[in-house]
Amino acid sequence: MVLIKRLELSGFKTFARKTVLTFDKGLNVIVGPNGSGKSNIVDAVQFVLGERSTRSLRVKSFPDLLFSGNSDYQKARRATVTIHIDNVDRKIPIDSDDVVITRSVSPDGSSTLKVNGMKYSWNVLVDMLSMASLTGGMNIVFQGTTIRIAESPPEERRKAVEQIIGIAEYDRKRKEAEVELREAEVNIKVARGKYEEVKLRVTELETGRNIVLSYNYLSDLINRFKAVRLSVKAKSLFENLEEVQSAVENLTSQIGELEGRRSQLEAERRRVQDEYGEYAREVVDKGGDRLVHLQAQLGNLNAVLAVRKSTLSSIRSATRNLEARRDEKRAQLERLKTQASEAKKELRRLVREKEELEAYLSERQKKIERIKEKISDIRLNLDTNASALRELEKKIKGLESERGKLYLKIRGEKERENSIISQIASIEDKRRSLEEIFSNLAQRLEKLREFRRKEEKSLEETVNAIERVKEQMARAEDEIRKAEGVVKKAKLNVTAFKSKKDLAERVLSEEKALSLIESLASMGALRGVHGRLRKRIRIPPRYRQAVEAAAEGWLQALVVENLDIVKKCAESLKRTKIGRIKIIPLSEARNIKPVSKPKIEGLVGSLASLVDASSKFKPALNFILGDTFLASTAEAALKASKAGFRAVTVEGEVFEPGPRLTVGFYREPIDLSEVVPSDKTIDAVGETVVTFEKLLERRRADLERLRKELVRLESERVRHEDSLKFFDAEEETMKNNLSRNRRLISEANRKIESLNRRLEKSRSLINEVEGGKAALEAELSKLRSEAERLRAKVRPEYVTGLESEKAQLEAEVVEFSKRLNEVDNRLRSLQDTFETVYTPNLVTVRKELTGLERELKRQLKLEEDTLAEISGIDSSIKELIAERDKLTELMASRREEYKRFGDTLKKIDEDYGRLIEEIRKMEGKLNELKERRLRLQIEYEECLKELKELGFERPLKLSTVEVKLSDMLMGRLEEERERLYSQLNMNAPALYEPQKRDYKGLSAKINKLEEEKSEILRFIEAVEKEKKEAFYAALEKLNQRFAETFNAITGGRGWVQLQNPEDPFSGGLDLIVEFPGKPPMPVTALSGGEKSVVSVCYIFALQSLTRTSPFYIFDEVDAHLDPVNTGRLAELLARESKRAQMIVISFKEPMASRADRLFGVYARNGVSYVHTLPAKVAEVSKVS
Predict the structure, then answer these.
(1) Are residues 48 and 82 in contact, defined by beta-carbon separation less than 8 angstroms?
(2) Helix or strand or coil: residue 7?
(3) Tell me: the pLDDT tens digits for 541-562?
(4) Per DSSP, what are the bridge partners of residue 1055?
(5) What strand order describes the sheet that includes 1069-1074?
(6) pLDDT tens, 975-1032?
(7) Are strands 661-662 and 654-655 parallel, antiparallel or unpaired?
(8) 955/414: higher pLDDT
(9) What is the predicted pLDDT for the residue at 1181?
(10) Mean pLDDT throughout 838-864?
């Protein structure tokens, strides 16, 4: 255990010569008159243990610690204090059983520290001593501390507790966490701003990309639907083409047959003409030759005419065919123009996209070139930049040196300013303390007056209470007399009840049996017993007679759950031999249903339905009344009984099935259990009598208590009268203290005004120097910016960053180059298509159309010529017929023979004409079919060509659903694609992915920052929770120790109370005590002596919160205690000295009487002397 074994003082304050104090383990008491130098011993201990505050050592400066000299002794050259500490347990980290610490101070204020003869720095010494709990606690209590504690504001007490238990560490952690939280929130805000910007860009690009994808998808789908339409059309054309081809082949075959028939007719005609000519040469003359010649010419002309008409028909068919082909070519030309127009639009779009991509790539290439130039420039100018940087750094150092001088000047003025502020703050604290003391005194005076009023009121209340107690005693004596009479009458009634009960037991066996079962059920011996049926139902008053009569006593039946309960009830009744009862088991009655109502006039309904019962007890009711009907008249009841039904009238007449009747006046059954008192009632009355007797005894005890209370109240009245006298004397003392405080506050205000004037002058000088410093800082900032720029250029990471940026740009260039290649390929492909497909096709179709129109003109001219030729042939035929008719008249004698030849030829000509007409019609049809075949062939080839342009080599195999779907959606899809075309941004897909990666990266970063923020908030919450827990734990310990110490010293009660329990750190700590025989009061309302007692107890309580120190020093803590409380404090310190060394400075005899070692201090001519005195109490163990 670390102990102070010895203390040596030389030239320290009033100790002019070397003085040695040897301390024991237990209670060491230093006594002496005021001014003898006792407190200087405490200052010496502080000094040698490293105290650096002159204020704590009660001097203005360190040289003031040296003995100032007198007539006997010269002024000390050095003030030296040496302390010997027992270190057997090695709590001080020095391998020595004894640690000797020496500290001396010279006249110039410089001090030297030595430990075991070796010099030590102050920091090392303090660290070593703190390991042994010799510093940093409340192990030294100075003179006047008790008064300061008693009169300190509650907030300061709370802050003191916080300081002791280290709440500041929690606040520091919270502040650091709050700084981190603010930084996290700023980072989140910045990230969110960038996130929203990138999100907006990603959304725009995603929309653009989706539009491009949708456009491409719609284009593919439209092409597919176009291919579907073309495939359907191609299939239809191919089928029609095959059909037309088959028809052409059939017609060609038929025309071939007809041509064969025409050849036969022509051969037949030539034969007949030859015969006719031969006949004419033989029979007739030259006129006959002419007729034959005419007839031959007519035949030839008719044949030519038929041919010309057939030719005309073919020409006209060819003309129609050419017109159809011309129209088809015109439509094809329009289609090609439309397709070429669309291709031109797509070409322009692709050219525009290519230009955009080329511009973007060019811009990126230029940026890459700029970065390359930067990198090259940095590498070339590296030495130049480094040299310039060194020059700048020299200038910066020079300016920083100048700034340091200004800073020192400002700091000196600020220290002077702080010193003035500190003095002002100190005086203001003193003034506030005085004002608080003044306020506290005023409050105490007011509270004292309030206590006096309360005391007067209490005296009045005590007097009134004495009167009330006397009245209560009179009433109690009267009540006791009356109660004794009531008890006597009650005992007689109990005897009478028991007589009636004996009589009832002989008459009411069933009731007794029921009561037994019910009591067994209520005690839990029988489970499943629901009680009497009468108590489980409600009978309407007007049906009560009918129900009672029809039930025939079964309303008293006991309702139980099942047959097992019935058995248990029967066994209980048999064992007790009391009587018989009716029982209805619900398990057996559940299936019983009421009898259906017969169609008899006058029957109201089933009697069971007119009684109210819960669903659980309805089966029991059906069991008793389910077969009984309520009749409105006796006649209706009689009819029902004759019909085999049980009935009852409202008056209670029962009609059984058959001849049985129960009639007459209904008398309600008497329940003897309600007349005769039950066992419970008799027992209750008996218990009431016993209870009443007990109450009577209690009342007699109350009367005795009132007598004692009267004696106590008389004593309290005397105490209140004494307290009033004490309050009067205390009020006069407080008035004097208030007057003295007013004077001190006025003096403090004058000092503050003087210091404020000095403060203004100092601040003016600081502002002037700050201006020069600001200009210097601006120049420094400029130079640092330039230096930072140069450092960036010479830093490798700057070049690395540029190269990284260049690599990223090059990756983008590669990506967009790919996209440009795709666009360029598409452009070239479309240009090739335009040049190789659309342009040649347009030229070809235009040529074909020109050729068709030229051929059409030729055919029309040929038709015109043929018509003219046919007209000429018709005229020739008419002339020949006229000439033939003249010759025929001349050759009338041979008319019959000629007629035969003529008829034969005519018949041949008619057959030939019909055949030619038929051939002409068939050739017309054939030409139409060939024309149609040609048109179908052209359309079919066009479909195949368009399918190839759409990317399909052959027509598709389709389902009906796909065809219908394409017909239904094609128009809408084209409208949607046209709408999307105006919004196209072909760069969107390429730009989307990098932006999306940035977006995801920012999102992950924000999530991480949010997690960090949540973690910080949880940490702050945990710190706050730990802070509160630590404070409450300390408060509980403080309260317990304070209560124990206060009780040990005074025998009263004391506690520490929070002003704001909900938020402990927003209020203070109140000390509430209750001295024996006095009401609870706050420490501010106590007398000076009482305050000292409370403060001493509170000091001990505070020490319990610190690390246990090996020794404690108390400087006149008993100054304001009376002898009794001083003695109790001494006993407490003596007990505590068994676990820690106690050094107490006192001038009270009770304290000295408890000392293990006693020192006497006295002063002579300004020099202090110490003598060890014999203690009045036997010594305990000493320091070896």
Answers:
(1) yes
(2) strand
(3) 888 888 888 888 888 888 888 8
(4) 1072
(5) 1053-1058, 1069-1074, 1081-1082
(6) 887 787 777 777 777 777 877 787 788 788 888 888 888 888 888 888 888 888 888 8
(7) antiparallel
(8) 955
(9) 34
(10) 80
- List the CATH code of the domain at 1-139+1126-1184: 3.40.50.300
On the question of pLDDT at 628 being above 80, the answer is yes
Q: What are phi and psi of 548, to 5 degrees?
A: -60, -40
| % of the chain at pLDDT higher than 70 | 82
Instruction: Please state, in angstroms and as integers, the Cα–Cα distance from residue 743 to each residue in 425, 438, 463, 748, 757, following that order.
Output: 19, 11, 44, 9, 23
Q: How confident is the model at residue 494 (pLDDT cuts 50, 70, 90)?
A: low
Per-residue confidence band for 1159, with pLDDT thresholds at 50, 70 and 90:
very high
> Is the sign of the CA dihedral 282, 283, 285, 288 positive or negative?
negative
The answer to whether the CB of 149 falls within 8 A of the CB of 1093 is: no
Distance CA(114)–CA(100), nearest Å, equals: 8
Q: How far is the first Cα of the chain from the last one, in angstroms, to the nearest whole number? A: 12
Residues 343 and 836 sit within 8 Å (Cβ to Cβ):
no
Q: Which of 357-361, 458-462, 828-832 has the lowest mean pLDDT?
A: 828-832
Residue 76 and residue 70: Cα distance in Å, rounded? 10
The Cβ of residue 724 has, within 10 Å, a number of other Cβ atoms equal to 15
In order of 585, 882, 1091, the CA distances from 613 in angstroms are 16, 134, 78
Confidence of residue 1143 (pLDDT cuts 50, 70, 90): very high
Per-residue pLDDT, averaged over 1025-1041, amounts to: 85
Dist. CA 407–CA 384, nearest whole Å: 34
3-state secondary structure of 10: strand
Tokens coding 467 = 């009167």
pLDDT of res. 1180: 38
Alpha-carbon distance of 67 to 65, in angstroms, equals 7
Whether residue 677 is predicted with pLDDT greater than 50 in this model: the reply is yes
Which of 1150, 999, 1136 is closest to 199 using CA atoms?
A: 999
The answer to whether 1114 touches 1142, Cβ cutoff 8 Å, is: yes
Q: CA-to-CA distance for 655 and 640, rounded, in angstroms? A: 8
Crossing angle, helix 679-794 and helix 796-833, to 10 degrees? 90
Q: At what angle do helices 679-794 and 382-507 cross, to 10 degrees?
A: 180
Residue 624 CA to residue 539 CA, distance in Å, equals 14
DSSP label of 663: -
**What's the pLDDT tens digit per position in 242-277?**
888 888 888 888 888 888 887 887 788 778 777 766
Tokens (6 digits) for 832: 């090739």
Question: From residue 119, how far is each of 5, 53, 111, 544 by CA, in Å?
Answer: 21, 21, 11, 115
Distance of CA 1130 to the CA centre of its chain: 61
What single DSSP character describes residue 17?
S
Under DSSP, the state recorded for 1067 is: S
The predicted model scores a pTM of 0.39
Burial-class residue 277 by CB neighbours within 10 Å (0-12, 13-18, 19+): middle
What DSSP element (H or E) covers 105?
strand 98-105
User: Would you call 383 helix, strand, or coil by DSSP?
Assistant: helix
126-159: b (≥16 Cβ within 10 Å) or e: bebbeebbbbebbbbbbbebbeebbbbbbebbbb
Q: Which residues contact 232 (CB under 8 A, 6 or more apart)?
A: 958, 963
* Tokens 């003359």 belong to residue: 285
Rounded Cα gap, residues 817 and 1061, in angstroms:
73
What average pLDDT is seen over the chain?
78
